[in-house]
Design brief:
There is one protein chain. The chain is of the alpha/beta class and about 210 residues long. The protein has a single domain, classed as P-loop containing nucleotide triphosphate hydrolases (Rossmann fold, 3-Layer(aba) Sandwich), CATH 3.40.50. About 40% of the residues lie in helices and about 20% in strands. The model has no long low-confidence stretch (mean pLDDT about 90). The strands form two sheets. It has a five-stranded parallel beta sheet with strand order 2-5-1-6-7, covered by helices on one side. Strands 3-4 form a two-stranded antiparallel sheet. Helix 1 crosses helix 7 and helix 5 packs across helix 6. Strand 3 and strand 4 form a beta hairpin. The chain contains seven helices and seven strands; from the N terminus they run βαβααβββαβααβα.
């Protein structure tokens, strides 16, 4: 098994990078583990209390569960990956069954933050992008997918995203084995990564 961690700031394009890497790879040989699925269970909190949580701080994540499930996959055991809803700021009752695969990709803003998780990775990648590009992407995403107004997104960016990025996310770039600038627009880097992953797979498992 080969475990890849892909981190980067909100709106950096890391999700696009992952999608483009995976789109031509066999789904039964590569598994994606989104870090966003591992936000803490907030069932015991009211909606008002949930909305006050800083979801861009390391304390918002259930590191114990994420690390344990990656260890289980590495040990050849299947897992029930939690699912998360941004609309209710909490986990959903449904889970996603994940079987151990030849390649596991962990993707999230702080995928490289926790040492115990980094130690399980064979390759660490940081997807980089200019702050103004990230802000534009966050506005486009949150107004469409998360029901926020443009002003709400800008206020959150200035009050939370920007300082949290500078304190917790940007420093993890130093742990990366590979930095991909320009996010999802860097087609050459994405193609290199896809080719690299193909070489990690058994020849018979790759289409085309």
């Amino acid at each position: 098994m080969y475990i890849i961690g892909i981190a980067g700031g909100t709106g950096s394009g890391k999700t696009t990078v992952v999608k483009k890497i995976l789109e031509t790879l066999p789904t039964d040989r590569v598994a994606l583990i989104p870090q966003d699925s591992y936000y803490n269970d907030t069932t015991h909190l009211t909606m008002e209390e949930r909305q006050r949580i800083n979801f861009d701080h390391p304390d918002a994540f259930d590191w114990t569960l994420l690390t344990r499930q990656i260890q289980q996959l590495r040990a050849g055991q299947s897992i029930e990956q939690p699912t998360y809803s941004y609309l209710i700021s909490n986990r959903l009752p449904e889970t996603v069954h994940v079987e151990p695969c030849e390649v596991i990709i962990i993707e999230g803003i702080m995928a490289l933050w926790k040492k115990s998780l980094r130690d399980l990775m064979d390759l660490k990648i940081f997807v980089d992008a200019d702050p103004d590009e990230r802000l534009i992407r966050v506005i486009q995403r949150d107004t469409v997918e998360r029901g926020r107004t443009t002003q709400m997104v800008i206020d959150r960016y200035l009050d939370v995203l920007k300082p949290m990025h500078e304190e917790f996310i940007e420093p993890t770039k130093h742990y990366a084995d590979l930095i991909i600038p320009q996010g999802g627009n860097n087609l050459r880097a994405i193609d290199i990564m896809r080719t690299y992953i193909i070489h990690r797979l058994r020849p018979a498992s790759v289409r085309g």
